[in-house]
Structures are given as C-alpha cells and as structure tokens.
Design a protein that fits this description.
Blueprint: H1 2-30, H2 32-45, H3 54-82, H4 87-111, H5 114-129, H6 135-164, H7 170-196, H8 198-206, H9 211-250, H10 252-265, H11 272-312
Helix pairs in contact: 1-6, 1-7, 2-6, 2-7, 2-9, 3-6, 3-7, 4-6, 4-9, 4-11, 6-7, 8-9, 9-10, 9-11, 10-11
C-alpha cells in the first residue's frame, strides 16, 4: 500500500512537472519577441565600457534583473490569485507597449539620416574620450539604465507568461513563472556576455600563429557587429508579431479576421499550406505596426502638449 501510494505520488509529480515543462515551453515561445529585443538592448548597454569591465557590468545588470523578477513574479501571482480579470488588460497594455517600442525604432530609423546617426556616434565617442569623464559614474549610470530597461522587459515577459497559464492551478503557475524568470535571465545575460566578448575572442584568436585560429578570429570580428544588427532587426519584427498577436487574441474581430484570411489563403494551389501557416503571423505583425503607429502618435501629441504647457509656465 505504501509502495503503491509512493508510486502514485511520483506519477502525480511527474505529471505535474510534465505539464509545467509544456506550459513553460509555450510561455517561452510567446516571450521570444521580448527576448530578441532584450538581447539587443542589453548588449548595447555595455557599449563604451572598458573591455575589462564588460563582464562585471553584465553580471551587475543580471543581478539587477533577478531582483526585478523577484518583485514581478510575486506581483503577477498575486494578480492571478486576487484580480485575475486584470490579466487580459495587462496583456493588452504590454502588447501595445511592445508595438510602440517597435514602431518607435522604425520611426527613428527612417526619420533620422545616416549623417545624423554618425554625428551622434562621433559625439558619444568624443565624450567618452574626454579626460574629465568619471568612468565609474558612467558605469553605474549604464547599470542603472540597463536595470530600468530590464524591469520593463521583464514585466512584459512575466505578464505574457502569466497569460499562458492563467487557467492552470496556482502551484503550476508558480513553477512556470519561476522557470521562465530564471531561464530568461540566465539565457539573456549568458548570451549578452558571449556577444560582448566575441570581439575580444576574435582579437585573441587572430593573433595566434595557427592559420585556422586566425581565420576563426577574423570570422568572429566580422560576425560580432552583424550579429548585433541581426538581433536588433529580429527583435523589432518579433515585437510586432508578439504584441500584435496579444492584441489580436484579446480582440475577437481581429482574431477571426486572421483565421478567415488563413482559411482563404489555404486554397492557393501549391503554396496554400505555407500561406495558411504564415498568414495569421503576418496579420498579427501588420496589426502590431498599426497599433504601434497609433500609440506613438498619441504619445507624441501628449509630449507636445506637455512641452507647450512647460513653455507657457
């Protein structure tokens, strides 16, 4: 009897863990949009930091990220337990914010010329090279800024993950959110550390006598900046897809439109299956772009009104 009870208990535990693993995978897929942008943003945060301080800065931001999640996970669980109706509005707000961030990046890219960006970069480099710059203070400011950015992105990740498990038992919600929080922190900052040291590894290998090592070193040096750009582009696209997808699932007419569009494209000879699979994602992305444009326009109007009020006073 005892042995049977123990086996039943182990089976229940295995079943729960299997459910948690499955839900964690679903939550991880939904938070991938934030993850790509998180990688690009945090890798850029250490730009201008001395090479020997890059990893300590990444570690400091990672610790700040864990503290952020130690606040956000209990807050999300409290919302799920006491005000579950708030989950959907928070998801929509998070999705709209993702779309806004993505569209703001596009607007900056197309509204600012390469000359303006080059001038800004030159001014930044000149500022860092100035003798009176306190590098310790600059490093602390970068860490604080990165931790603030991480708080926003972590909040989006936790809310999106919570939305995938809102119908699950509370114990499973706890395990999924904790798993996502830890996996995202370790994954993001582990990759950030690898990315920011990629150029150092490239320099080290390029100075070796071995031709193969030199080739790998040159490849790393050439890949590092392209990888940063790739992460930024993919992260921006994913923000529209994830943000638009959240809003589409919350707004039934848009969700039904995406399903109908997928059904219509499924009848296209030869490529119907592929089109039906990608159509909902395309619709989500386009909806994300539109929402981002609307939110950016509203934010711009509010900022201008505040500016006029400040000038009047």
């Amino acid at each position: 009897m005892a042995g049977g009870s123990l086996l039943a208990l182990l089976d229940d535990i295995a079943s729960v863990l299997d459910d948690v693993t499955l839900m964690s995978k679903v939550a991880a897929k939904k938070t991938a949009g934030v993850l790509g942008d998180d990688l690009a943003l945090n890798a850029q945060q250490v730009t201008g930091v001395n090479a020997d301080r890059e990893l300590p800065v990444v570690w400091a931001v990672a610790k700040g990220s864990l503290k952020n999640k130690a606040i956000l996970v209990p807050a999300a669980l409290a919302i799920s337990a006491f005000v579950p109706w708030l989950i959907t509005p928070l998801l929509v707000i998070g999705g709209a914010f993702l779309c806004y961030e993505g569209f703001e990046k596009l607007a900056h890219k197309f509204l600012h010329s390469k000359e303006e960006d080059a001038q800004h970069k030159a001014e930044h480099i000149a500022h860092l090279a100035a003798e009176n710059v306190d590098m310790c203070a600059l490093e602390k400011d970068k860490i604080k800024g990165a931790v603030r950015t991480d708080f926003i992105l972590s909040a989006e990740i936790i809310v999106i993950a919570l939305g995938t498990v809102e119908q699950a038992p509370f114990s499973q919600q706890v395990m999924v959110l904790v798993a996502i929080a830890l996996a995202m922190t370790v994954g993001v900052y582990g990759l950030v550390a690898a990315i920011v040291k990629m150029d150092d590894a490239g320099v080290y290998l390029s100075q070796k006598s071995s031709g193969a090592a030199q080739g790998v070193g040159k490849l790393l040096l050439a890949t590092a900046p392209k990888l940063m750009k790739f992460l930024s582009v993919v992260g921006t696209a994913a923000m529209f897809m994830v943000g638009g997808g959240i809003i589409a699932h919350a707004w039934e007419p848009l969700h039904h439109f995406a399903e109908e569009a997928a059904h219509m494209t499924a009848g296209v000879p030869g490529v119907g299956g592929v089109l039906a699979a990608i159509t909902p994602t395309v619709v989500d992305a386009l909806a994300g772009v539109l929402v981002g444009a609307i939110v950016l326009a509203v934010v711009s109007v509010i900022q201008r009104m505040r500016g006029k009020k400040a000038a009047a006073h």
